[in-house]
Amino acid sequence: AQTVTQSQPEMSVQEAETVTLSCTYDTSENNYYLFWYKQPPSRQMILVIRQEAYKQQNATENRFSVNFQKAAKSFSLKISDSQLGDTAMYFCAFMRPRGSNYKLTFGKGTLLTVNP
Amino acid sequence: EPEVTQTPSHQVTQMGQEVILRCVPISNHLYFYWYRQILGQKVEFLVSFYNNEISEKSEIFDDQFSVERPDGSNFTLKIRSTKLEDSAMYFCASSAGQGPRGLYGYTFGSGTRLTVV
To answer: Which of residues 25-44 of A touch B (CB under 8 A)?
Structure first.
């Protein structure tokens, strides 16, 4: 079974600074996807960024970028120019497409607080 | 942008009662999911559903749980006899599968907060 580990239960950063959230995963598969989801206090699940395992290039979305190290099974999220609205729980998730099933396996999350 | 709609947003029920949580997936999506998040904990997979049958279910999804797509638009999760430990946020999600360009969408609803008293 796949596992996703987020080793930082909580982190904080000053507004406008950069922060990196860690995620490691365990799989023997070669074809998979990795995701970062943001969950603000409203508890909605918002997709931040996605990475396909077959792509060597790291995904970027505006202020959000990932460092995908396939051999090390590491998938960290970097948030640049942190904003107060980035305060949320961040979940790393793994998906191994198989047949008609695309279930996500989540890590335990990192609570990020952006301080003014 | 298309949305996954869940109703109600919050439901309070007495222990032992049946509850039905409702979801309207994105119209051209074919794969449907339920996840659960107990307060302060991680999001856990419950069940995936495709072509009117369950693709996979987790250990959490025991005989008290069932899913249905009764009319081609709604996707429901039923809990037959609720327990205190069923109190959680329940998320519905839908996706369009994958193709040559990779994964086609995976969208979560805003969740139903179930409180069992």
So the answer is: 33, 35, 37, 42-44
